[in-house]
Amino acid sequence: MESRKEKRAFLIGRFQPFHKGHLEIVKRILSENDSIIIGIGSAQYSHTVVNPFTAGERHLMISRTLEKERIYNYYLVPIEDVNANSLWVSHVEALTPKFDIVYTNNPLVRRLFMERKYEVRSLPMVNRKEWTGTKIREKMIAGEPWENDVPDPVVEVIHEIDGISRIRQLSTTDEDITQ
Questions:
Q1: Any idea where the domains of the chain sit in the sequence?
Q2: What is the pLDDT of residues 67-103, one digit of tens each?
Q3: Third-level CATH fold of 8-170
Q4: Which among 128, 103, 119 has a CA at the least distance from the CA of 29?
């Protein structure tokens, strides 16, 4: 009997933070594939308003969430940016296990993988009005409720690392401090 080749998908995002929309996308991808590689993009950035969390913190957010969901068929790979788009796919390939299909809604990522002959699929965004990293970070800074927008393990990690205090402090200017 011939064995079936495992079908492995690739998804990349900054996950600043990992939210319920990301979780739904992971579940949808896994409904069509045997496993998923989740690339933690812009892994070298942290401690800014746009990228407040480290790659390690994002790794914790994702792995704890997937464990709670009883999802075990995944790989988490931090991927630093390469400031040469023509080299980026090779960079990703060097860091990850082989994959068959790429899921992205990012036009540049789509183009780069298509040029390398990958099958690229998009997924519908889930509750995009509320579940975006930008919107969630804005809520954190403003002191608005954000906890319902992310899975419970993400809330726990953010509290463990004092993430709310961090992002609020990062959102201030030196003029705010001297007043």
A1: 8-170
A2: 999 999 999 999 999 989 999 999 999 999 999 999 9
A3: Rossmann fold (3.40.50)
A4: 103
Distances (CA, A) of 137 to 51, 108, 129, 148: 9, 24, 14, 13
Q: Model pTM greater than 0.85? A: yes
The alpha carbon of 134 is separated from its chain's Cα centroid by a whole number of angstroms, namely 13
Burial class (CB in 10 A: 0-12, 13-18, 19+), 84: exposed
Q: Which long-range contacts (CB under 8 A, 24 or more apart) does 66-73 make?
A: 66/26, 67/153, 68/151, 68/152, 68/153, 69/23, 69/27, 69/151, 71/26, 71/27, 71/30, 73/30, 73/34, 73/35, 73/36
Placement of tokens 């201030």 in the chain: 172
Query: Cα separation of 3 and 168, whole Å?
Result: 53
